[in-house]
Design goal:
The complex is a heterodimer of chains A (147) and B (266). Chain A has 147 residues and is mainly α. Chain A has 6 helices and no strands. In chain A, helix 4 crosses helix 6. Chain B has a single domain, classed as Vaccinia Virus protein VP39 (Rossmann fold, 3-Layer(aba) Sandwich). With 266 residues, chain B is an alpha/beta fold. Chain B is globular and about 50 Å long. The chains are: A mainly alpha (147), B alpha/beta (266).
Chain lengths: 147, 266
């Protein structure tokens, strides 16, 4: 586990709502590329959960948990473009804060590590989903033809 | 409604085209090519489809938590993926899905395996009475008549006579407290694009039917809209229209579609 980043976590906690608004503005254009679970009314709540997830990581930097969280975002219905917009915005938020500070090397890397792990989890989760659906489709066709 | 089985993977299927346009993976190259042709004609179609598909979770919540229905019979369900009705209903609700396509049914049964109170049968949504009278369905409903019926996203595949028949059969069968949730797809069939799209779907063996809101209301009689009325998808989701102004002229009512809870008129 990496060292915790309490200063950065504090900034995230203080600006939780503002960051969620930034994320909302960033992913709004890709709303129609998400899966059907992500109805417009749910989006804000999902993004607030994302800010919470980042905050948790900064206090307890466990990359494996972030990868797992990224996998779950596939199940939540986030599409590729939303993930790209989300991670770009999170990095941007981090850099804005870091540029005003005298950050340590690990602070510089914190959000970069977080977003990379999130994307890694998303990609592996998406691959697993494809394989699962491929198998289900194959078996459904076989059984339907056997009928 | 799609009349060809999607077991045949050598010709495009409206069901698999629909799946592809919604970002699914249960489709083949031939479907993707057909979908791309449809998308060239109506680029906003994937957005329109998402708007009505997003309603499913709202329907589940409204019908079970708010209105107290403990059984939902959903017609032409397609694939019961994790955004479908059963994922958002109140605990203990019985959900019965159906589809005429055998692959959807087999796939559905696999996805739903061990999901309590959720069932999936092969059935033709045009003949609800025949389906509801089956012993296997009767044994699940166990005499219940306060049932919510759902026809969501299928109107464009139904003829006027079929919608009329569905309305009448369910009205006669259902209890006074029953409800039918229906998604209406208005579109201007006289537009050049409308005709091209209809021709394309006809070639796939799935001719499309479009009509305006007054025609729908006439076909639903004696069902009437409840106090929420016929809500546009934009009102339903609290979003602005995703369509560009030049795309809006395909829609005679200036909305991509309506959702409604139909009830028995007092």
């Amino acid at each position: 586990m990496s060292p915790q980043h309490s200063k950065l976590a504090e900034v995230v906690a203080e600006n939780q709502s503002k960051i969620a608004d930034n994320l909302f503005a960033a992913v709004q254009p890709s709303l129609y590329t998400n899966k059907m679970h992500v109805a417009p009314r749910r989006l804000k709540q999902l993004l607030e959960e994302e800010v919470n997830a980042l905050h948790t990581y900064l206090l307890q930097p466990d990359t494996a948990k972030v990868v797992e969280h990224g996998r779950q975002l596939v199940e939540s219905g986030f599409g590729h473009q939303t993930m790209i917009n989300l991670t770009v915005t999170l990095r941007s938020v981090g850099w804005q804060w870091l540029s005003q500070q005298n950050p340590t090397a690990s602070e510089v890397m914190a959000i970069e590590t977080y977003t990379s792990a999130l994307m890694e989890g998303y990609l592996t989760g998406f691959e697993a989903l494809l394989q699962r659906e491929q198998q289900l489709t194959h078996e459904a066709y076989r059984r339907a033809q056997d009928r | 409604m799609p009349t060809r089985t999607i077991v045949d993977a050598t010709i495009p299927s409206a069901g698999r085209v629909y799946d592809y346009l919604l970002g699914g993976h249960h489709n083949f190259e031939i479907d993707r090519r057909a979908a791309d042709r449809v998308r060239t004609l109506i680029p906003f179609l994937p957005k329109l489809m998402r708007l009505f598909r997003w309603c499913l979770q709202d329907l589940a919540y409204e019908l079970t938590y708010v209105r107290g229905y403990d059984a939902i019979v959903d017609f032409a369900s397609g694939l019961p993926t994790s955004d479908h009705l059963h994922s958002a209903v109140a605990p203990g609700t019985t959900v019965i899905y159906s589809d005429r396509d055998p692959v959807s049914v087999e796939y559905g049964l696999e996805i739903l395996e061990n999901t309590p109170n959720v069932h999936y049968f092969q059935a033709d949504c045009r003949y609800p009475l025949e389906y509801l009278s089956r012993p296997e369905v009767q044994s699940i409903l166990n005499g219940k008549r306060k049932i919510a019926y759902v026809y969501w996203g299928i109107s464009m595949y139904l003829t006027d006579a079929e919608i009329k028949n569905i309305s009448k059969e369910l009205y006669d069968y259902a209890d006074d407290d029953a409800c039918m949730a229906f998604y209406l797809q208005p579109y201007d069939p006289e537009s050049a694009v409308g005709q091209q799209v209809m021709e394309l779907y006809s070639k796939m063996g799935d001719p499309l039917q479009f009509r305006n809101l007054p025609s729908f209301k006439e076909l639903f009689k004696p069902w009437v809209a409840d106090n929420l009325g016929y809500r546009t998808m934009e009102e339903w989701h609290g979003v602005e229209s995703p369509l560009a102004p030049e795309e809006m002229h395909f829609f005679p009512d200036k909305t991509v579609g309506y959702g409604v809870y139909l009830v028995k008129g007092k």
